[in-house]
């Protein structure tokens, strides 16, 4: 991991966590666009079929607020990035 990646926050990290950044030995994808833009998604241990699916991530800051989900899909040409594809209730 480069220094830029080490300073980033991981999706799902507790807001009170003094070190919400990536952990050694984990694999991350960068979320691009939408309400979680710039966060890292921990994809450690995900199978190829899971990586090919759309990630539906719970968040309170999306279009539907509490209980809503925001959707990200892995880029084919740049698999380290996951593009926002919309929100759902």
Quick description:
The chain is 10% helix and 29% strand. The chain is built from two helices and five strands; from the N terminus they run αββαβββ.
Task: Please give a handful of descriptors for the protein shown.
2 helices, five-stranded mixed beta sheet, mainly beta, 89 residues
How is this structure best described in words?
The chain is mostly beta strands and 89 residues long. The protein is built from two helices and five strands; from the N terminus they run H-E-E-H-E-E-E. It has helices at 3-6, 48-52; strands at 28-32, 40-42, 55-58, 69-74, 81-88. A hairpin with a 7-residue loop joins strand 1 and strand 2 (40-42).
Strand content: 25-35%
Q: Which parts are unreliable, with pLDDT below 50 for 5 consecutive residues or more?
A: none
From the alpha carbons, calculate the radius of gyration and give it in angstroms.
13 Å
Q: Helix content range of the residues, please? A: 10-25%
Order of strands, main sheet, comes to 2-1-5-4-3
